[in-house]
Amino acid sequence: MTIRSAAPLARTRRHATCVAIRCGRSWRAALLRGPSGAGKSDLALRLIEAGARLVADDQTELARRGSAVIATAPARLAGLIEVRGVGIVRLGRGRLIGRAPVALLVDLVPPEHIERLPDPATEGLLGVNLPVLMLTPFEASAVAKLRIALTRAADA
Description:
There is one protein chain. This protein has helices at 40-49, 142-155, and strands at 11-14, 16-23, 26-33, 53-56, 60-65, 68-72, 80-83, 87-90, 99-108, 121-125, 128-135. It has one domain: 3-Layer(aba) Sandwich (Rossmann fold), CATH 3.40.50. It has two helices and eleven strands.
């Protein structure tokens, strides 16, 4: 008898950067979304410096497996991150993770789009409802805010 892992139910590729943070004993990913120049790679780099791991920069492959959305990097981009003003940089293995379940969608927006006390928001991705955080990426507190929101989402 051959046992096979479940095939993905759906797949997509998104213009987004994905980082994973350790939440308890497992890694949970945040999908950073926004137009070019919004600060996706910059925020990812700061998160990585604070202990997160890069899943994918600029393009993220997403696959539904059971009730989870799993993020991976396209093969040709794996391990690479754009560092504006420096170039494309290959990160060391200790700063990377091959795949992680997405627990939070993060929309990078200007400060005037942030509500002081927002109502919880969710969005469907490949048929899975995920929490959404609106975040201004260049604020000094952006890394801390993302960590708090991701930990909260992973605990839910």
